[in-house]
Amino acid sequence: MINMIQDKLIKWYKENKRDLPFRNTDDPYKIWISEIMLQQTTVAAVIPYYERFINRFPTISSLSKADLEEVYKLWEGLGYYRRAKHIHETSKILMEKYDGIFPNEYEDILSLKGIGPYTASAISSFAFHKSYSAIDGNALRVLSRVFEIKENIALNKTVKMITELSNKLIVDHDSSSYNQGLMDLANMICKVKNPQCTNCPLSDDCLSYKHHSEKLLPISIKKVNHKELSLITGIITYEDQYLLIKNDDGLLENMYGLVQYEVESPYSFISKFEEDYHERLEAVSFIKDYRHVFTHRTWKMHVYHFVSSKPLDHMYTKEELLTLPIPTAHKKIITSII
Ligand code: SF4
Q: Which cofactor does it need (predicted)?
């Protein structure tokens, strides 16, 4: 499989790519400006700003001579204004240190202000056709689904592992089309919710699609501060029945609630549930994140749907469960989902 998905992705990209103004160039300066604008900002919002900016400052030299206020003015409405300051400062450094020629070494690009590993890889690949994988949230989503990676993508070690895997895929391949293909596939087909697997060029090789885990992945659980608990919360069903457990003690004593554990992923939820209730559940899909603030703590609940293969004690129909005393934290989940 490792030799196939990149070919399929590149072929699909060439046939389906979005026509974006910053794709019709391999000028590193223009690619740099577009990539900085695209940080935290949608493609649709960036296009008119990019065109106006490049029209006014077509080269590093013209930008370096500009008044900072004019750069800000052209950035007005795009947000994250520190980016405008960084590119203006960097254009001066590019003139002084690199004679106005954008550097083509990855480490030099990475050393520039406002440029992190993703942007340095994107510029190296799009402008200089070097073998660097540009791994952002979109690429992490697609690759973790294709290879069914069940690790938390919010952790650096997972990003590193996926980047290394991706770097192997692009050896001797067109890295620019591969990276941009991942972006377009994430945007057009392998969407956050409801990936369009039946239209996907990678569906024959995608392990998540094969194992029906595409709506569970990627796992993205961000670390939270000590007062905030990160929980996996389960809507556990058997046919039309839902599991609700009465709390014996603690914060919500005598109230009925969904089963939830402070664990890393829905897979560890399944193991913990099996330990406690001697029943192995099957994970069906990620539903939504919810937050509930109590006086002294916050629950960040990552809600997943699990099914049981047989009826369990404490299962209720929809009508029955709405008559039970349920704390607000779970009531809002139950009323919006069930
Ligand atoms: S088959 Fe589905 S989950 Fe897999 S990459 Fe394609 S859209 Fe994403």
A: [4Fe-4S] cluster
pLDDT at 322: 79
CATH of domain 1-12+137-217: 1.10.1670.10
**Residue of 80, 26, 34, 40 whose CA lies nearest to 57:** 34
* Average pLDDT of span 69-80: 83
Residue 189 alpha carbon, nearest atom of ligand 1: 7
Rounded to whole angstroms, how far apart are CA atoms 238 and 245?
A: 15
Among 8, 141, 146, say which to mutate for ligand 1: greatest number of ligand atoms within 8 Å of CB. Answer: 146
Q: How confident is the model over 197-244, as pLDDT tens digits? A: 999 999 999 999 999 999 999 999 877 665 889 999 999 999 999 999
- CATH 1.10.340.30: does it fit domain 27-128? yes
333: confidence class by pLDDT, cuts 50, 70, 90: very high
Task: Please tell me if the CB atom of residue 208 comes closer than 6 angstroms to any atom of ligand 1.
Answer: yes
CATH node for 228-337: 3.90.79.10
